[in-house]
Design a protein that fits this description.
alpha/beta; 2 domains; metal-binding; hydrolase; Amidohydrolase; metal ion binding
Length: 389
Amino acid sequence: MTAEAADLVAWRRHLHTIPELGFAEHETAAFVAARLAEMGWSVAAGVGGTGVVGTLQAGRAPRNGGPRAIALRADMDALPIAEAVARPHASRHAGRMHACGHDGHMAMLLGAARDLATRPDFHGTVHLIFQPAEEHGRGAAAMLADGLLERFLFDEVYGLHNMPGLPFGRFATRPGGLMAAEDNFEIVVEGVGTHAARPHMGLDPLVVGAEIVLALQGIVARRLDPVAQAVVSVTEFLTDGQRNVLPGRVTLRGDTRSFDPAVSAMIEARMAAIAAGLCQAHGAGHRFLYTGEFRPTVNSAAQTAWALDAARAVAGAEGAEGDCAPVLASEDFGAFLERVPGNFMFLGSGLAGEPGGVPLHNAAYDFQDGLLPLGAAYFATLARQRLAG
């Protein structure tokens, strides 16, 4: 292992020991900012709460019609999961761990930062965005609201995420929809509670709630064009009843995924109509809430082609796939792509049964350190290619 690669591992493992939740990444942000400053990057801290932006300018103004500035992004927050495997670099914060690889994403971007600062053979400006609060879809919006685009001008933005289930070291992306929007919903059914032996004395919201759960499944099955993609999932069914008490209230909560804002709007409208119609039919009251949590991650065609060029320069012609299947998981990066053209890339960490095949958000997960030089080289190569002058 080279000294440079050893540094990446040391950085990643240190970050793994200090996991912090969204908008509380104080120690994490301080570590990132200190490393960037040591490398000679201009550093802005506290962007969007705990976000960090590093800036490096080099060369002359680009002359080939390419971008004047690009942004490269890594996420910083951890998850409220207790780490299940004892490791020398295990989490020191009880009930929190880097179970999604954000420690690795930060280390890769720091590696690219060192590479670019050591050899600034590009023409233009590189901004490195270390984003807070990705896991619950709030960090990108917070940085944008704090003037990210006005304070740090850039023409393109790129991100990367490790991906268990893909072969180790394989890059994969696609133009268009790569990751889905996530919306959340809550339906409260108001009935009249009563003794379980005397249901006629009340109005049972359990029956109404059960009918709503079944009816919601017809939205995707019968109201959505089969060519489109969406998921509607009821994930919670909560009541205030007891063993011998029929409840007075039922709360249904869940999650929907889609790639097209028009599909999201259709799902919301159908949910509202189903809840209102079934509750009215039974004489029950209801409340309906539908919120957008993540925007869809939609890659720009041109930027995807350029990202693939960089990935193939690092991993070889066969090491990058340009038409991978979209996934219905969500990613906060989509908020940036709504404002600036760019690309989001997957980097395979291993197939099922391999060490890197442990699923994301699993208590036994650990980022695969062998990916660190690949990711760092990808980001640095992408910056140099896009700012070649």
